[in-house]
Amino acid sequence: MVLVDVRETLSARASDLFLQVRPGADLEVLTALRAMVHGRAVDRRLVEATGMTVDRLEDLVRRMKQARFGVFFFGSGLTTTRGRHANVAALLMLTAELNNFTKFAAIPMRDYGNEAGADNVMSWQAGYPFGIDFTRGYPRSNPGESTAVDLLVRQDVDAALIVAADPWSTMPHGAVEHLDRIPRIVIDRKITPASRAAAVHFTTAAPGISSGGTAYRMDKVPIPLREALSSLHATDEDVLLGIHDAVVVARRARSG
Description:
- By secondary structure, this protein is α/β, with parallel strands linked by helices.
- 41% of the residues lie in helices and 18% in strands.
């Protein structure tokens, strides 16, 4: 197991090899690795500016090419540093290029339960897993422009609906700073920094415990869940459908 991170963590201590890169240098490291995979020369000074050395990256490339089956597990840190979606694109291109030599795959490590399920539903409903924009009446996805982080950083939104998430612990400072300035509606089963500061907070039944459904593992395998304990609270689905119905009624009243 090789761990690449900006600081030493418990995972680093358990790994066989730990590579510490400088914060914000993800894209440069990935670009250098892509060049080395194809045997191209890289500038040693540019590589050293990332906190790495050419020798260490060449050793990593050798390990990856010799693997019979390798997997990149990548976290949300790639999307919260400089480069954001470009970092993920570079990693996926590196994965594709390694498949010219051996078998390689890439799996995102998600922050919250059933995020893979949300991706799956968005994909078959709208054709894209995230960053979906419906403003033209049909779904579009443009990472770097239409994701929640990008919209908040550009201050393009004046209200937010947060469902089972805590942006204060996952989003970059620029996004959270604007989020603090606009009204927020939070739907969550527990109290979080987001719900404490919300204009409206709906407490819901715990998914998979007090409400049934389907959850997806990070490898996209669906797992059916049954209600184990009853709850006095409505489900996330009930609350969202209630908001939808209220909006439809208000729109009809306004137009009539």
